[in-house]
UniProtKB/TrEMBL annotation:
Enzyme class: lyase
Keyword ATP-binding appears in the UniProt entry: no
Family named by the database record: Belongs to the radical SAM superfamily. 7-carboxy-7-deazaguanine synthase family.
Catalytic reaction(s) noted: 6-carboxy-5,6,7,8-tetrahydropterin + H(+) = 7-carboxy-7-carbaguanine + NH4(+)
UniProt protein name: 7-carboxy-7-deazaguanine synthase
Cofactor annotation: Mg(2+); [4Fe-4S] cluster; S-adenosyl-L-methionine
Function: Catalyzes the complex heterocyclic radical-mediated conversion of 6-carboxy-5,6,7,8-tetrahydropterin (CPH4) to 7-carboxy-7-deazaguanine (CDG), a step common to the biosynthetic pathways of all 7-deazapurine-containing compounds.
Organism domain of life: Bacteria
InterPro entries according to UniProt: 7-CO-7-deazaguanine_synth-like, Aldolase_TIM, QueE_Cx14CxxC, rSAM, rSAM_sf
Residues involved in Mg(2+) binding: 50
Keywords: 4Fe-4S, Iron, Iron-sulfur, Lyase, Magnesium, Metal-binding, Queuosine biosynthesis, S-adenosyl-L-methionine
Annotated binding of S-adenosyl-L-methionine, by residue: 47-49, 94, 135-137, 175-178
Length: 215
């Protein structure tokens, strides 16, 4: 059984694949925060910008097996696209690796999709992922130390970029912390720009979907 908060067709907003048409599957639940505001301040991850509680979002629900969820997600890829790009699905959440398994990945491959994952890096990865983005959180212990992109939200007191710069990733991104969920103030954009100018291993990742005003 898979629990999905919401699923939708949009452009990937962040990181190396920003701008690519994608079906997003947002799984319910996370291991680093309950999703309740009352628990935010005492959780390992405190700045989350996402509602991943329940199954009540657009195209959300509970799916009995990989076939039924894969059919549901594949149906969100439009039938009238033109050109060469492969269909692309991004599994996120919440924490997708609490639920994503090799059989669902296989079912998406069987429907001609490339499979991307956005994870906090604390849970072992299943086989078959085509694009892996790891985004470390505070003091949480990372078990995934290689992948395609490491995308660190900045600044985090307990997770400075220097802790991750030696890991086995092709791209290293800093993404300015959106302080809106925290009702906070501060110019995290300027801090990221300054860091990337000092340390060119790290590149700027913007949450372009928020700028554009899409999901
Ligand atoms: C909501 S998380 C879901 C996937 C997974 N749990 C994770 O943390 O990577 C998706 C992406 O949004 C980023 N993110 C969450 N809250 C953010 C915020 N306030 N500002 C900037 N990025 C944020 C995360 O670091 C992650 O890269
Ligand atoms: N457009 C868009 N791009 C995204 N990239 C990562 C997202 C996420 O919440 O995991 C996200 C999202 O929520 N929307
Ligand atoms: S780990 Fe990801 S989904 Fe979980 S609370 Fe943090 S940003 Fe949100
Ligand atoms: Mg998001």
């Amino acid at each position: 059984m898979y629990s999905v908060k919401e699923a939708f067709y949009t452009l990937q907003g962040e990181g190396a694949r920003a701008g690519r048409a994608s079906v997003f599957c947002r799984f319910t639940g996370c291991n680093l925060w309950s999703g309740r505001e009352a628990d935010r301040a005492s959780s390992p991850c405190r700045f989350c910008d996402t509602d991943f509680v329940g199954t009540d979002g657009q195209h959300g629900g509970r799916f009995r097996d990989a076939t039924s969820l894969a059919d549901h997600l594949a149906a969100l890829w439009p039938t009238n696209t033109v050109g060469k790009a492969a269909p692309y699905v991004v599994f996120t959440g919440g924490e997708p690796l609490l639920q994503l398994d090799a059989s669902l990945i296989e079912a998406m491959h069987a429907r001609d999709f490339e499979v991307a994952v956005e994870t906090n890096g604390t849970i072992e990865i299943p086989a078959g992922i085509d694009w892996l983005c790891v985004s470390p959180k505070g003091t949480s212990r990372m078990v995934v130390t290689r992948g395609d992109e490491l995308k660190l939200v900045y600044p985090q007191r307990d997770a400075p970029p220097e802790r991750f710069a030696h890991l086995d990733f092709q791209y290293f991104y800093l993404q300015p912390m959106d302080l809106t969920p925290l009702h906070g103030e501060g110019d995290t954009m300027a801090e990221v720009v300054a860091y990337c100018l000092r340390t060119p291993q790290w590149q700027l990742s913007l949450q372009t979907h928020k700028i554009v005003g899409i999901d």
